[in-house]
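Input chain follows. Return structure tokens only.
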Amino acid sequence: MSASTDKFHRDDLADEFISYLRIEKGLSDNTIQAYNRDLLRFFRFLAKKRLSPLAATPEDLNEFLTQLGTTLSLRSCARNLSTLKVFFRFLVSDGKAATNPARLLSIPKLPLRLPEVLAPSEVERLLAQPDTDQVRGLRDQAMLELLYATGLRVSELVALRVNSVNPEAGYLRTVGKGSKERMIPIGAKALEALNNYLVDGRPRLLEGRTSSFLFLNPWGKALSRQGFWKMIKRYARQAKIQRAITPHILRHSFASHLLDCGADLRSVQAMLGHADISTTQIYTHVSRERLKQVHAKHHPRP
């Protein structure tokens, strides 16, 4: 097989794999992009060896992962191996390959990495920052309150439509990873901030234009993830929160604070939209770690 023919063959396999991830697995665009990056990295390795993906052996995969280990973290190497396992399972199930060279390769056990969460007092300071005398402040307060009240991902937050929210019932509807729909209750403070935005803020951002999106930029278009990212960082600086802030930190804080206050794990799992409860269990480790810190700080004989 010539180099150009082999490249087209790899490209075809990659395209079919991406279609499988999008259509059959229902993965999000961000997750698909991560799979694609990992796969292209593997294909570049194979091209140097003049190998087709269908001819790759367990030894080739081990060599690839060993090379990755010289430049990438253990966590990144584990993610690349996970991508290869999914890719070769797809090839076998689709009849393109007879064997799976990644089948017996084990993903290394990773050290537990606890999610960063804000203290309740830090959340209060952050949520108090928007100037609600301004139209953008009304929008920003509604977004921050809603994010902390529901544990939405930021991609889910900016994708909300006006009809996604039922203020009278106190619920919102969102579509998360895997195109799975879920209903999440909204607390009273978030509902108040949302109603203030819908009555006094959103019409002024629209200025006679139309849009089905709930949260808008000054041009009446849907606010982007990047726009929200910049906004939350600015408010964190104003609140003098001395740590790196991301939109996801409010999702982590939502889950951790619910469990701290006695919520059951299954309910938190449903609200977060986790397919596997083991993903939600990480927040119980956060709570235990905080209890250990409180004990060490305040017990007379720590």
